[in-house]
Amino acid sequence: MAVALLVAAGRGERLGAGGPKALVMLAGRPMLEWSLDALRAVEAIRCIVVALPDGVVAPAGTIGVAGGEERSHSVRAALAAAGDGPDDEPILVHDAARPLLTPELVRRSLDALAQTGADAVVAAAPVVDTIKRVRTDAPGLHVEATLQRHALWAAQTPQVFRRAALSRALAQPDDVLAAATDDAGIVEQTGGRVHLVESPRENLKVTTPLDLRLAALLLEERC
Ligand code: CTP
Ligand code: MG
């Protein structure tokens, strides 16, 4: 069995909807409900913990916990609220900001963790743009390098971890956690082995108003 941690405690500043992003209405429901549907449909998930903005009531059938200042602090709070379990128990972390999650992707990610023996498995999509790296030590947008696109993947969630690997990563000092945009990145830094599973670009993250419009169109198409 596995545990799912849904992080939904962000402020949604870039979306600018005037309230927490996970509660913004999307195709007729609060955004986080779409991810919850996908997680609830997976038999292997024994418990769902949701990191929420202060004062928000936990959705039905979930354990609610107050989120932290940064995303990784919310993941840490959610893991603590899930209680104890075996060291190799799969812990799935998902952003409520990715409402197009499917049960199929959740199952495939959990299967990949079991089959690869990795410490973590990350859903990711091949990069479609050509990526340029610019100098960060000088003004102006001076290109330093053009990266090899075939080797580049855009990380998404879900990310599935062996409990011990995630706990070790989250025990890093607060400044290391605050700088991380991705839990699997911390696992890599602490010597863990991380694999990818291919995921569609449709599993997009709602960051800006454009993403919200796109997500609404895609979800309405599904219904
Ligand atoms: N998140 C969280 N706790 C935080 C910050 C983020 O639980 N302190 C969650 C968000 O709710 C979201 C996911 O982490 O589901 C990814 O974060 P992001 O897309 O950056 O969302 P926000 O932090 O809400 O948006 P912004 O950075 O624009 O304020
Ligand atoms: Mg954020």
What do these coordinates show?
With 223 residues, the chain is of the alpha/beta class. The chain has one domain (2-222): Spore Coat Polysaccharide Biosynthesis Protein SpsA, Chain A. It contains 7 helices and 11 strands. The protein has helices at residues 31-40, 71-82, 103-116, 163-170, 174-179, 183-189, 209-222, and strands at residues 2-7, 25-26, 29-30, 45-52, 63-66, 90-95, 120-126, 132-134, 143-146, 153-162, 194-198. A 7-stranded mixed sheet has the order 5-4-1-6-10-7-11, sandwiched between helices. It has a two-stranded antiparallel sheet with strand order 2-3. The chain is globular. The two termini are 29 Å apart. Cytidine-5'-triphosphate (CTP) binds at residues 7-14, 21-22, 51, 67-71, 74, 95-97, 205, 207.
Oligomer: single chain
Low-confidence stretches: none
Count the DSSP helices: 7
What is the typical, i.e. mean, pLDDT? 96
Shape: globular
Number of extended strands = 11
CATH superfamily: Spore Coat Polysaccharide Biosynthesis Protein SpsA, Chain A
Number of domains: 1
H/E element sequence: EEEHEEHEHEEEEHHHEH
> What is the second-level CATH architecture?
Alpha-Beta Complex
Distance between the termini: 29 Å
CATH classification class: Alpha Beta
Major sheet details:
7 strands, mixed
Helix content: 25-40%
> Widest sheet: strand order?
5-4-1-6-10-7-11
Strand content: 25-35%
Radius of gyration: 17 Å
What is the CATH topology descriptor? Spore Coat Polysaccharide Biosynthesis Protein SpsA, Chain A
Catalogue the ligands.
cytidine-5'-triphosphate, magnesium ion
